[in-house]
Amino acid sequence: MPKKRKAKTGVKGYLKQVKAKFKHAEAKVAHAIKKNPEKAALIAAGIGAAIGAAAAAAIMYKRKK
Known about the structure:
This protein is mostly helical. It has one domain (2-64). It is 95% helix and 0% strand. It is built from 2 helices and no strands. Helix 1 (2-35) packs across helix 2 (37-64). The model has no long low-confidence stretch (mean pLDDT 89).
């Protein structure tokens, strides 16, 4: 049974590390957005346009079949 406890502790430790990395990344993104809001808005618009174009292409492809 001690091995199971070590495994759980290992997973919990790993999750803590992942959460800390995500919080750090979130802080960096928030800082970048505050520093360059226009650039962030253009990037978001570009990603939205790409997703919209991909969705439209998928719908059109499905209709042709």
